[in-house]
Design the sequence.
């Protein structure tokens, strides 16, 4: 586990500024949700933490290391995306093991980590199956399994549930929270869904047009929104 410090981080694509000096502190083991309308810069910020986008200004630190110039593989993070393409011709077990094999991890360690992840995610009976033989929820769990086996310091989720139907979304929300309660891995979770934010977060960061409008615990934002935007966004049904 590690704390993440995002300090005055800015991002421009060419001459277009999409993030304006954003600062967020994420404590060790905390579950922080970045929420805001489509296009406000959530994915860009998360991708900078992951090392998938360069930083135009400011610093990002994971643990006690500034990681601005580290490639993704050296950052000790694991990311789960909305389009979590599994390898169709690999089994559940092989899908989960793949990233570790690429890193030339000892096969005994790979086997032990895959077994542990399968236990945690209730995937043990499905290890020899192929993705097409799984339900949507099971596939989503395999995607999480691929992240868990890497034992990262930080989990990054980018709208991981937006391709699932409403009922499954509610179930996976609970599962991701339970996973966090069990592993206590520092997590940054991006969503445009205020219900997801309210039910999952220790701390919510409300974003709008590349800026942070308010940071606080779910009930703080609900009871004391800083402005009409936060009130409207947090208070309205999804
Ligand atoms: P969100 O995830 O909150 O929907 P994004 O971080 O994806 O928002 O995008 C923030 C802004 O940055 C948007 O205006 C988007 O069009 C722009 N943007 C994102 N990626 C790129 C890119 N590679 N090149 C140019 N503009 C981009
Ligand atoms: Mg996005």
Sequence:
């Amino acid at each position: 586990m590690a704390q993440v410090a995002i300090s005055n981080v800015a991002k421009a694509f060419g001459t277009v500024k999409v993030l304006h000096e954003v600062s967020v502190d994420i404590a060790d083991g905390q579950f922080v949700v970045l929420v805001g309308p489509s296009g406000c810069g959530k994915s860009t910020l998360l991708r900078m933490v992951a090392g998938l986008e360069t930083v135009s200004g400011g610093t990002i630190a994971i643990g006690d290391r500034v990681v601005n110039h580290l490639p993704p593989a050296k950052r000790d993070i694991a990311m789960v995306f909305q389009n979590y393409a599994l390898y169709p011709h690999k089994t559940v077990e092989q899908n989960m093991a793949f990233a570790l094999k690429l890193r030339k991890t000892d096969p005994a360690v790979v086997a032990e980590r895959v077994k542990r992840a399968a236990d945690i995610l209730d995937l043990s009976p499905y290890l020899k199956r192929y993705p097409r033989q799984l339900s949507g929820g099971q596939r989503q769990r395999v995607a999480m399994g691929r992240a868990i086996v890497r034992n990262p310091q930080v989990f990054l989720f980018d709208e991981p549930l937006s391709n699932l139907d409403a009922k499954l979304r509610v179930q996976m929300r609970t599962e991701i929270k339970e996973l966090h309660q069990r592993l206590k891995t520092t997590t940054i979770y991006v969503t445009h869904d205020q219900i997801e934010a309210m039910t999952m977060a220790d701390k919510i960061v409300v974003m709008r047009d590349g800026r942070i409008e308010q940071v606080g615990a779910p009930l703080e934002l609900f009871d004391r929104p800083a402005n009409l935007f936060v009130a409207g966004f947090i208070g309205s049904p999804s």
Summary: The chain has a mean pLDDT of 93. DSSP finds eight helices and ten strands in the chain. The longest strand covers residues 16-26.
